[in-house]
Amino acid sequence: METGELENGGVSLNFQNHLRVDYAISKKSTLGLDFSYAGTYFNPLTNLDVNAAYLRDFSYLQNPSVRATGITLAFKRFKHHYAPLGIYWEYKIGLVSFTTGDFQYTITRDSSSVVYQTSHTVSGINNIAFTAGIGYGFNRVINDIVVLSMGLDFTYFSGGYPYHNGLINEGGDYQYFDGDMGDSEYNREVMVNLARGRLFAHYLMNIRFGVGILL
After folding, report:
1. 132-158 pLDDT tens trace
2. How far is the CA of 72 from the CAs of 25, 68, 126, 147, 186, in angstroms?
């Protein structure tokens, strides 16, 4: 399990769930396969552009959800003791498949004292991204069978940096929903990019806690 992320200048609490298998390939090295799941959401209000003409109100049902499943190949090098005991450095690359929920919203306008509403739904998307990261941690073995692990991970989520609002970046194309276009190809591309930006923050920095069995 991993938790924590950088967001808007602070730290919010988020979780990732991991299941992994490590195999000793030398006295001080292991090669592992990691399966992960993460769930979060993003706030569309900071990335919505609506024609201001006669605009009275804008509302939406809920923040779009983001779900990610990943597989990672990880190499650990232990510093002082034989694997899997003691301090280690970890290097990893992975592939993540992510999806979003639908984004449903309503625009209310007032023209010549006539109030009218238009409702839109931007369909959820499916996409993939690559990850690369480095970790530092410590393992302790209890009774020659139980492995307790904790550490710190830094992971780069491909394509997400320009689209995360909480970090200093230059922005980019396809960053803002066009409220009047609804379920268009353009808005679905925005959905992909905002999901990447959200997951970039979710994966960027995590504290890891784990319990395993030594076979």
Report:
1. 999 999 999 999 899 999 999 999 999
2. 17, 13, 19, 20, 31
Distance CA(178)–CA(63), nearest Å, equals 16
pLDDT digits (tens, 9 = 90+) for 87-98: 999 999 999 999
Output the average pLDDT for the chain: 84
Neighbours of 129 (CB within 10 A): 22
Give the DSSP H or E segment for 189. helix 185-204
Calpha distance 202→73 (Å, rounded): 19
Indicate the pTM of the whole model. 0.83
Give 168's contacts (C-beta < 8 A, 6+ positions apart): none
DSSP 61: S
Strands (E), the chain: 2-7, 10-26, 29-41, 48-49, 55-60, 65-78, 86-100, 103-111, 114-122, 126-142, 146-157, 177-178, 205-213
Q: How many CB atoms lie within 10 A of CB 120?
A: 19
Residue where the block lists tokens 């991993």: 2
User: Under DSSP, is residue 6 helix (H, G, I), strand (E, B) or coil?
Assistant: strand
What would the two tokens of residue 168 be? 């200093």
**Residue-level pLDDT at 10:** 43
Residue appearing with tokens 């650990």: 76
Letter string b/e over residues 145-160, b meaning 16 or more CB atoms within 10 A of that residue's CB: eebebebebebbbebb
- Single out the residue of 76, 68, 125, 122 nearest to residue 95, CA to CA: 68
